[in-house]
């Protein structure tokens, strides 16, 4: 099984992290993952094709924003909040605060949230 490479915190660059956070779908994924729980890729709902969602998740992983783990045929993803807060103090909180205020990425949800009509 191929091991996925994740940059160490000192390898993360502001440019790559900001590039990863420059798309509303990716910001939405970060918002969903900000609860600190690891999520299966199948739990994530976004208004894009599965291949495009995979691309967005890869962009976040390659920048160091998320960590991906494969277990058999399933993939799981989690936000690397601690690493991001250590490397870029306050950045993630600022991005999440602005994203919530402007509803950036609000179209991304968990499958359980998307199925719940009460929102």
Automatic annotation (TrEMBL):
SUPFAM superfamilies the UniProt entry points to: Winged helix' DNA-binding domain
A Pfam entry, by short name: HTH_20
Ranges for domain HTH arsR-type: 6-99
Assigned keywords, A-Z: DNA-binding, Transcription, Transcription regulation
SMART domains referenced in this protein's UniProt entry, alphabetically: HTH_ARSR
Protein name, entry field: Helix-turn-helix domain-containing protein
């Amino acid at each position: 099984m191929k091991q996925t490479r994740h940059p160490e915190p000192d390898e993360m660059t502001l440019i790559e992290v900001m590039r990863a956070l420059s798309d509303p779908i990716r910001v939405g994924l970060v918002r969903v993952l900000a609860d600190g729980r690891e999520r299966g890729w199948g739990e994530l709902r976004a208004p894009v094709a599965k291949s495009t969602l995979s691309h967005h998740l890869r962009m976040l992983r390659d920048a160091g924003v998320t960590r991906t783990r494969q277990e058999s045929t399933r993939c799981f993803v989690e936000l690397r909040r601690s690493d991001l807060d250590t490397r870029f103090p306050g950045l993630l909180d600022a991005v999440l605060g602005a994203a919530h205020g402007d509803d950036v990425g609000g179209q991304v949800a968990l499958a359980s949230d998307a199925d719940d009509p009460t929102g």
